[in-house]
Amino acid sequence: MNETVNQAAEEDDTSAFLRRFLHLVAKGKWLILGTTLIVTVAAVFWTLRQPPIFQAECVIEYDTQPPRPLGTGVEEVHGESHYWLSREFFDTQNEVIASRRVAELTVLSLSLHLDPSFMGVPEESLGDWTGGEVSDAAIILQGMLTVVPDDATRLVKLRVRAGSAERAAGLANGIADAYVARSVESRSASTVAALGWLGTQLDDLGVQLSEAEVALHDFRNENSVLAVSLEDRQNLIAAELEAFHSALTTARAERIELAAAHRLLREAGGRDPMDMPGRIFEESPTIERLRQQIQERTAELATLSGRYGAAHPQITALTLEVNELRGQLRGEVDNFVA
């Protein structure tokens, strides 16, 4: 009986609380609706006033093949070979991409520390502003970059957010270029070190060879074995004849080449100097240097053309440089022929 009375009292208390709550809500409904409307309008207004943010994405594929400056027959140039296929390698490269060093290389390459819009310089301070620090620009760039690896592949995505689509795309490509340049520099360093080691070994072997020749000479003197045998004489004569024959063949070939070069020089007035054999210009270091520069710039232009459009500033600058070099080459060839 007591339990029934208690349950009835609890139900009455609950009903009374709900009635009071609904009364309060009904009494302040306009205040609640007004507050909700004001907060919603303020949030929409604040969102619309925010500058748009664009995101660009660049994909890089890691090369897990180690450099082999000593040849394919020599393995494990950089420690254990399985290191290049481990997750440590990929995680390390992800950290390298997001590192201060790569960011500073990108800043220097794109001159971001001299860009007031990138550095966030107020308009009223533009007159006295002469540029920022590379380290400060690198910190800003690091805050805009997100490295997203794909654990199932060797690909990694570089995502950059900026105030314009062009700026975001340029920064993403710039970071990728800086990382590739740093990777090439790092791998070249191992090749240079290997070449240095080979040079040291070559010097040591040369010293050993000289010592062995001196020892052989002393042995022949001590044992009176300096006389040359008939077979050795025949070998010497055969070697001399072979040398004379080779020299004669070389002289004939040079004579034919010189005759062809002379004919080409007479016809050079209407031909492209880049299509002519380089041997005929051996006497002019200036022409050889210009031809080499044109070949290098043309190769670089072909590489960048596959990456950027024809209107890209680097493409335009390289095209103008190639045309100027060709004009200089044409003038030097005309002077050389005259």
Summarize the structure in words.
It is a single chain. The protein has 338 residues and is mostly helical. The chain has helices at residues 2-27, 29-49, 87-97, 100-110, 116-119, 134-144, 165-223, 230-266, 285-305, 313-337; strands at residues 54-61, 145-149, 155-162. The chain folds into four domains: 23-51; 54-197; 228-266; 271-338, no CATH class. The protein is built from ten helices and three strands. It has a three-stranded antiparallel beta sheet with strand order 1-3-2. Strand 2 (145-149) and strand 3 (155-162) form a beta hairpin. Helix 4 (100-110) crosses helix 7 (165-223). The longest helix has 59 residues, at 165-223.
Main attributes?
single chain, 338 residues, mainly alpha, 4 domains, three-stranded antiparallel sheet, 3 strands, 67% helix, 6% strand, elongated
Briefly characterize the structure.
By secondary structure, the chain is mainly alpha-helical. Helix content is 67%, strand content 6%. The chain contains ten helices and three strands; from the N terminus they run H-H-E-H-H-H-H-E-E-H-H-H-H.
